[in-house]
Amino acid sequence: MWDKFSCYLTFGLLLVIACAAAPASNDHGIHSADHHKHLHHAKGEPHPSHEGAHQDCHLLSPHNADFAFSLYRKLNALPDSKGKNIFFSPVSISMALSLLALGAKEHTHSEIYRVLEYSNLQPAQVNEGYEHLLHMLNHSRDAFQLEMGTSLAVRQGFKPLDKFLQDAQHYYQSEAFTADFSKPDVAAQEINKYIAKKTEDMITDLVKDVDKDTVMMLISYLFFKGQWYGAFDAKDTRKDDFHVDENTKVTVDMMWREGVYEYYIDLANHITILMLPYKGNASMMILLPDEGKMQEVEGLLSKEQIKHWRDSLWRAELTVSVPKFSISATYSLADTLKEMGMVSAFSESADLSGISETEQLMLSKVAHKAVLNVDEKGTEAAAVTTVQFAPQMYLPKLKIDLNRPFLLLIVEDSTRTILFMGKITDPTAA
To answer: Can you quote a single GO CC term (predicted)?
Structure first.
């Protein structure tokens, strides 16, 4: 039997980050010769025109949405998720696995693409899509902060193939650094420090157990910090009840505001849709099921249904109440990804020969953590939401009260990307 070498895939996700990349050393000069002909410009400069290029990331968005809803259903079905909050960054996980696919071949590669809903896409389309997506999302904005990227943490003495490193940096902007995995505690400390820096200390302890056989860790991070387009006034926040279920209620700080919002009440499907826009190109899309109808609404989740609700939005003066909360969720995704069909990457039959031709590699762990903070000023997290504006209509003032479990999507509009997705069952459960 050949020796097993672990490739540890880590996702740190927070209303801020998703960690999924494999670093290599502090040498960052791995761009291919033609790389700078692609989508780069100096920091602070406006976006150049990308006629045609925008289609690269838009091509990914429907497939990434399918993956997001499939993964949500799997996480929601976990025994540990019953009655709990759910929160994760689907695009961070998709990006990490797409980076991994750079080094995967044959059945291992096809399984990764099948799970990601990329089976009818070519690798070039996927990789160029992420190249453009990263460029669009990492552009500096006055209104909000959004940073997304990957890294490769590589064991001292282990040398991944040059092509893998070059492609990782070219398409996924991967930084590379070495880590002393022979000293697991030291390696964990180094990597957690790196993740904390990328997520502004929102995720500080994602990596805990490091196997001494680990040769590389893929890290994917996503940090989002947005201000509400219409901020809530802190003096209007007051204690109120949040009904976790028919037998349980908790006391929360409930924010209140009157203003013009987009909403839609779908009577047939027992749900109210509310858009909470951020300054800039992002929104939080709230899906508020009628009492006792959460499961029915979860069964409807699909990109087609989300588009229908988005296209049906009306604009009106509303009174809205939103709980103020901070939550986090941590997942070990290996078993979930296997159930979804990504099996061989975790076995001795894994073909990751695109990373190394001298060592036979396999995945050992996939960890993901997401953190979300919502207050009067805005949201701190990694998130994406798609918002379409409908003609303004003048209707009697309505009240939408988020005082029971609801679903949320955080979407970045220009790229049509779901940054974060979750279910708030109990806003007091950190």
So the answer is: extracellular space
Q: DSSP letters of 96-115? A: HHHHHHTT--HHHHHHHHHH
Q: Are strands 361-374 and 314-332 parallel, antiparallel or unpaired?
A: antiparallel
Nearest Cα residue to 427 out of 328, 298, 291, 321 = 328
Q: Tokens for 381, please give them.
A: 């997290």
Which neighbouring-strand residues pair with 411?
Answer: 283, 418
Helix H or strand E segment including 7:
strand 5-13
Please report which helix (H) or strand (E) contains residue 424, including its range: strand 417-424
Residues of the domain holding 119: 5-227+327-372
What single letter denotes the amino acid at residue 258?
E
Chain centroid to CA 157: how far?
32
The 3-state DSSP composition of the chain as helix, strand, coil percent (nearest 5) reads 30, 35, 40
Q: Are residues 288 and 158 part of one domain?
A: no
CA dist 251 and 19 (Å) reads: 33
The HSE-up count of residue 430 (CA atoms within 13 Å, CB side) is: 1
CA dist., res. 95 & res. 97, Å (int): 5
3-state SS, residue 210? coil
The size of the chain, in residues, is 430
For 71-80, 99-108, 145-154, 203-212, which range has the lowest pLDDT when averaged over its residues?
A: 203-212
- Tell me how far apart the alpha carbons of residues 85 and 83 are, in angstroms, rounded to a whole number: 7
Tally of domains within the chain: 2
- Helix H or strand E segment including 318: strand 314-332
For residue range 124-161, what is the model confidence (pLDDT) as tens digits? 999 999 999 998 887 656 667 788 888 888 888 888 99
Q: Each residue of 246-259: pLDDT tens digit?
A: 899 999 999 999 99
